[in-house]
Amino acid sequence: MDSAYRDMADLHAMKIGFLWKSRSTAVDQPNHLPASLAQLEQRIHRHLDGLLLQPELAWDICKKSLELAQPEETFTAALLAFTCGNTEKTAQAVKAGFVNANTFKALVSALEWLPESSGLKWIQPGLSSHDLDYNLLAISVCRLLAHDPGEPLTQLIKRSAEQQQHFLFIQCLRLAGELKRMDLKADCHKAATADNTDVRFWGIWSSVLLGERDHALALEPYTLHINPWQQKAIQLAFRVIADNTADTWINHLLHHSDPLQQRCGVKAIAANGRPQRIPDLITAMKKDTLARVAGEAFNLLTGIDIEQQQLTRPIPVRKWKLDNLDDSELDIELEDSKLPWPDADKITTRWQQHSADVESGQRYFMGKGFKASTMTGHLNNIIASGYQRQRHAAALELALLEPTHPLHNTRAPSQDTQ
Q1: Low-confidence residues of the chain, pLDDT below 70?
Q2: Domain ranges of the chain
Q3: Which of 40, 160, 69 is nearest to 140 (CA)?
Q4: Can you give the pTM of this predicted structure?
Q5: Is 291 within 8 Å of 262 (Cβ atoms)?
Q6: How far is the C-alpha of 228 from the C-alpha of 230, rounded, in Å?
Q7: Nearest in space to 294 (alpha carbons), one of 244, 216, 226, 347
Q8: How far, in whole angstroms, is CA 405 from its chain's centroid?
Q9: pLDDT of 350-378, one tens digit each?
Q10: Disulfide engineering: 114 pairs with which of 118, 211, 224, 281, CB 3.0-4.6 Å?
Q11: How far apart are CA 373 and CA 383, in angstroms?
Q12: What is the structure's pLDDT at 328?
């Protein structure tokens, strides 16, 4: 019986790791809705229930897998340990989570997957700990749960700044901005001029979320040059900068010699949300390297579903194989693989019919102008039931539109499935 169940427990553990990894990818794919994510979450919890039938045997299996120092195994072991509530097991799982950056992300994710009250119980001591690693763990979980830790955040943001603990400081800055902690605006403002480029970026990011929109101009180098924060800088900056500045930056990106920068220009048009730049999107649709991302940008701006309205063209015949692509080409293919191929001529005709209904001089998101009295409800509806990339964008729009509204975590597992 033990042998038979060991095989079954091995399968449950393997499935949890596999499904968690699949969901981690799915949250940023354009073809997933909250309902499809919930199905993956339910499958994970069913396999977790299977492990809990014989928790000691299950832990023996998970504990051995921690030696691999891989995120999937770390997530599974941590989720089991925290669910069982055993202090010794959780200590082992936490230790394994600190091995590298990927296992740390898995550890934080496992705590996020618990019912919120349970997750907060486990990280509460970390907020007051003198151990910086446990501080980082606690603040990282607070970010994912959108939980305001109160005074401990104030203390940690000052302590991490003084001790030059950049990663902890960055997580504290992000949490301050995303939760709209106005009392920490001065700390974010100061960080926005830091020498460290990563700290400076997140200082600017949080300052803008806290209402300091002029700070977005400082995002220019992050927006116009390849760097780790370029995509996030584009998503934020083009939603708040003046139209003439937006046009200058967009033109710089669209006319860049690097196709990757041209893609950034297309994404900038979507974030900026002004219909007068749609002709640029239609032009981009005629290039295979830009077509699909331009179609997605058109959808984000107009709300027109090009696949549903049959505004697509056949998939072009391409001679290359995935194995022959370099890293950047592979990243593009993976990002676009679930997107339809837009037909530029059909979309030109459709836009000519639709353009008379839009008002010049205002921003649009998914077909609705920001001057509409129902814009807040529109954004909330998309966050609740839209496709993932639409939800990410809607959450940022809402956080910028409503001064006290925190930034919703659109990648979080549903509490209903826990």
Answers
A1: 1-2, 319-325, 417-418
A2: 1-113
A3: 160
A4: 0.95
A5: no
A6: 6
A7: 347
A8: 18
A9: 999 988 888 888 999 999 999 989 999 99
A10: 118
A11: 18
A12: 73
CA–CA distance, 303 with 285 (Å, rounded to integer): 17
In SS3 terms, the chain reads as: CHHHHHHHHHHHHHHHHHHHHHHHHHCCCCCCCHHHHHHHHHHHHHHHHHHCCCHHHHHHHHHHHHHHCCHHHHHHHHHHHHHHCCHHHHHHHHHHHCCCHHHHHHHHHHHHHCCHHHHHHHHHHHHHCCCHHHHHHHHHHHHHHCCCCCHHHHHHHHHHHHCCCHHHHHHHHHHHHHCCCHHHHHHHHHHCCCCCHHHHHHHHHHHHHCCCHHHHHHHHHHHHCCCCCHHHHHHHHCCCCCHHHHHHHHHHHHCCCCHHHHHHHHHHHHHHCCHHHHHHHHHHCCCCCCHHHHHHHHHHHHCCCCCCCCCECCCCCCCCCHHHCCHHHHHHHHHHCCCCCECHHHHHHHHHHHHHHCCCCCCEECCEECCCCCHHHHHHHHHHHCCHHHHHHHHHHHHHHCCCCCCCCCCCCCHHHC
Single out the residue of 259, 201, 254, 257 nearest to residue 230, CA to CA: 201
| Cα(183)–Cα(187) distance, integer angstroms | 9
> What's the pLDDT tens digit per position in 15-66?
999 999 999 999 999 999 999 999 999 999 999 999 999 999 999 999 999 9
Interatomic CA distance for residues 114 and 83, integer angstroms: 7
> What is the maximum alpha-carbon separation in the chain?
72
Tokens of 344: 């530029």
Q: What pLDDT sits at residue 1?
A: 46
The amino acid at 127:
L
Give CA–CA dist 389/31, Å, rounded: 9
**pLDDT score at 360:** 82
